[in-house]
Amino acid sequence: MRFMIIRKADKATEAGTLPDEKLLAAMGAYNEEMVKAGVMLQGEGLQPSAKGARVKFTNGKPTITDGPFTETKELIAGFTLIQVKSRQEALEWLKRWPALDGGGNVELELRQVFEDEDFGSEFTPELREQEARMRRELAARKA
Fold this sequence. Notes:
Layout: E1 2-8, H1 11-14, H2 21-37, E2 40-45, E3 53-58, E4 61-66, E5 76-83, H3 87-95, E6 108-112, H4 125-142
Antiparallel strand pairs: 1-5, 1-6, 2-5, 3-4
Domain YCII-related: 1-104
Family: Belongs to the YciI family.
InterPro entries: Dimeric_a/b-barrel, YCII
C-alpha cells in the first residue's frame, strides 16, 4: 500500500522561512530511517504558494491565478511517499515525525494512493498496459 504524507503549510513555510540546521538534520535522520526500512519512495519540500499558480476550469476553460494563496490550512509545504503493509504502519511512521518541525506544532495528512486494482474492470487491459508503459518510461528517466 502506498501512502502520501502531506505536510501542511503554515505561516513560516508560506513566508519562505527555510529550516535551520537542527531541523534539516532531524528530517534527514527521519528520512534516512524510512529509506533504511525500505518504506520511503520519495519526499520533497515545496516552495511557498507565492511562487505557484492555480488553474481552475469552468466549462472546460482554464483560468490561472498566481499565488500567494491566503488560506494556509489548505496549502501543502511538502510530501513524502511511502510504501507500507497497512494504514496502521503508515500512521506509526507519521507519529515519529521530527518534533522540531514547526516548533512542535505541525499538521500532517495521510492519504492512500490508488493502485491499479482499485479501479476494477473500468481499467481495461489496454489502459493497464498504457499505465505500465508510462511507469517504465519514468523509471528509465530516473536511472
